[in-house]
């Protein structure tokens, strides 16, 4: 049986995925400061030249890694209309996924925490956080419009609080998984936000 040859686009996509996985592994194992284009290429089984060809610089690699690691963390949300139900599913799914986060998701949390003191990371993660908050604000505003969320709730405040809580839980689990029971916590936190936001 003859295996069909992969197109150039397929080969490029496969190499990029391997390089991003290698970068995530290095961040998790050794921290972001250990990340160099040469080490990423070596970890992935490629040359540094391939890494430079795909990303151009360490900064561009980290930006692409930040986007790749955050995408699709809670599957199925894109099919839901904005509103309270989608926000609660996000909270539940995010905490549940934190309990079994893979290398890419752990790398994202480590990079996010590092961004507080690393000037080259801060703009990337400010942008990623604003995108996350924007989605949360949209859900709260839609919930208010639908009559499901209390009208005295400020969407901006909720977005900041939810993002901080979810990322904080993820970091705590990363630091000491034995003390953070995500299976139980996901229900507790989801129920908290349901009671805090829902019209009585």
Structure, described:
The protein is mainly alpha-helical. It folds into two domains: 8-69, Orthogonal Bundle (Arc Repressor Mutant, subunit A); 72-197, Orthogonal Bundle (Tetracycline Repressor, domain 2), CATH 1.10.357. It has helices at residues 8-30, 37-44, 48-55, 58-70, 84-98, 103-114, 122-146, 155-175, 182-197. Helix 1 crosses helix 6 (103-114) and helix 4 (58-70) crosses helix 6. The chain is elongated and about 60 Å long.
Q: Helical residue percent?
A: over 70%
Low-confidence stretches: none
Q: How many distinct helices?
A: 9
Mean pLDDT: 89
N-to-C span: 65 Å
Round the Cα radius of gyration to an integer and report it: 19 Å
| CATH topology (level 3) name of the largest domain | Tetracycline Repressor, domain 2
Please name the CATH architecture of the largest domain. Orthogonal Bundle
Which H/E pattern describes the elements? Answer: HHHHHHHHH
Number of domains: 2
Strand content: under 5%
CATH H level, superfamily name of the largest domain? Tetracycline Repressor, domain 2
Number of separate strands: 0
- What is the CATH first-level class name of the largest domain? Mainly Alpha
Structural class based on helices, strands and sheet pairing: mainly alpha
> What spatial form do the alpha-carbon principal axes imply?
elongated
Largest sheet: none
């Amino acid at each position: 049986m003859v295996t069909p040859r992969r197109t150039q686009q397929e080969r490029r996509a496969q190499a990029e995925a391997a390089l991003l996985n290698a970068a995530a592994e290095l961040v998790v194992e050794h921290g972001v400061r250990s990340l160099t284009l040469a080490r990423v290429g070596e970890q992935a089984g490629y040359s540094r030249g391939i890494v430079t060809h795909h990303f151009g610089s360490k900064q561009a690699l980290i930006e692409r890694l930040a986007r790749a690691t955050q995408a699709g963390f809670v599957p199925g949300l894109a099919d839901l209309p904005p509103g309270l139900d989608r926000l609660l599913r996000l909270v539940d799914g995010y905490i549940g996924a934190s309990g079994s986060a893979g290398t890419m998701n752990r790398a994202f949390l480590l990079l996010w925490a590092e961004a507080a003191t690393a000037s080259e990371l801060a703009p990337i993660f400010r942008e990623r956080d604003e995108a996350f908050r924007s989605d949360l604000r949209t859900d709260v505003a839609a919930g208010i419009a639908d009559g499901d969320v209390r009208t005295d709730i400020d969407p901006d405040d909720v977005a900041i609080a939810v993002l901080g809580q979810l990322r904080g839980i993820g970091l705590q689990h990363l630091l000491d998984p034995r003390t953070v029971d995500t299976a139980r916590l996901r229900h507790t936190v989801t129920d908290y936000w349901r009671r805090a936001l829902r019209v009585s």
